[in-house]
Amino acid sequence: MARSEGDTWDLASSVGATATSVAASRALASRGPNPPIHDPYAAALVRAVGTDYFVRVAEGAVDFDEDPLFDGDTMRAQIVVRTRYFDDFFAEATAAGIRQAVILASGLDTRAYRMDWPADTVVFEIDQPAVIEFKTRVLGDLGAEPAADRRAVAVDLREDWPAVLTAAGFDPDAPTAWIAEGLLIYLPPDAQDRLLDHITALSAPGSRLATEHMDSRAFTGDWARKLTERGQRHGSSVDLTKLFYSGERNSARDYLAERGWQISIRTTAQAYTAQGYEAPKDELLAMIGDSGYLSAELSARPT
Ligand SMILES: C[S@@+](CC[C@H](N)C(=O)[O-])C[C@H]1O[C@@H](n2cnc3c(N)ncnc32)[C@H](O)[C@@H]1O
């Protein structure tokens, strides 16, 4: 179904299924001896959602190797690079003394449980109610213990989420490390701007933010269509062309820079090589342009 204002989902439907898809990739990359990432809960979370295709991906039972666009090695590299980028971001932020973290659109992200957080760190996770409740319940049933003071915040990011976050104990005077991993493309352009405005307003000096960098040349229907066809070749029923808001939007890089953030961009090719992987195939790179990852720091509140 196409997107609409105020639409909702669980982890098996609409945008929620994309969270299960990413968790299935993390489960796949966590398999075997000496895996390049280790998400000990991803496979169990994917099994609990129960979507057959994602369970098979998580179990390594789908053969992506011959895929002409995005083969198995590229897929594993992609999730490793992405996971480490945001893991490293949080590790560096806490090493610099930040003790408040916010995971926007947390989906089936288990960082609050699996990362080494300094003892006094508070980690807020924000996502839609059905997503937050599901993950909290399944991890509780598994006996998983948060490794930080985890606060689950069930709210839609197109609504007045700062009020709900503040009610959960967020301190706007403490520097914060924010991540928005796999989120912006699922927000309408004006909701992206509002999100970045809210983050800026809630960020004390010294705050940091990491998210994807999206090259505007990549915002064509083609990108979503090619990725959708690639998933469907292997049995996925997710249709990204119906889930992305792929029209024109402000670039997060420019928008944040105008509001006083210092920006650092790592393109996908740079991110792959930084982690010791070969850059993806030219066809894939041509599709995503210079998209990659963005991190930013705010040294003073904008006046
Ligand atoms: C691709 S998944 C990414 C999940 C997680 N960040 C990760 O990388 O594993 C997209 C996530 O964005 C969340 N999301 C998208 N739009 C949202 C909104 N308006 N409000 C709250 N959550 C939203 C979805 O529920 C889903 O969990």
UniProtKB/TrEMBL annotation:
Keyword Nuclease: no
InterPro entries for the chain: Ppm1/Ppm2/Tcmp (IPR007213), SAM-dependent_MTases_sf (IPR029063), SAM_mthyl_Trfase_ML2640-like (IPR011610)
Keywords: Methyltransferase, S-adenosyl-L-methionine, Transferase
Domain of life from the UniProt record: Bacteria
GO biological process: methylation
Enzyme Commission numbers on file: 2.1.1.-
Gene Ontology MF: a single term: methyltransferase activity
One protein family per Pfam: LCM
Record-stated family: Belongs to the UPF0677 family.
NCBIfam families named among the record's database cross-references: mthyl_TIGR00027
Record's function text: Exhibits S-adenosyl-L-methionine-dependent methyltransferase activity.
PANTHER family: S-ADENOSYL-L-METHIONINE-DEPENDENT METHYLTRANSFERASE YKTD-RELATED, S-ADENOSYL-L-METHIONINE-DEPENDENT METHYLTRANSFERASES SUPERFAMILY PROTEIN
Protein known as: S-adenosyl-L-methionine-dependent methyltransferase
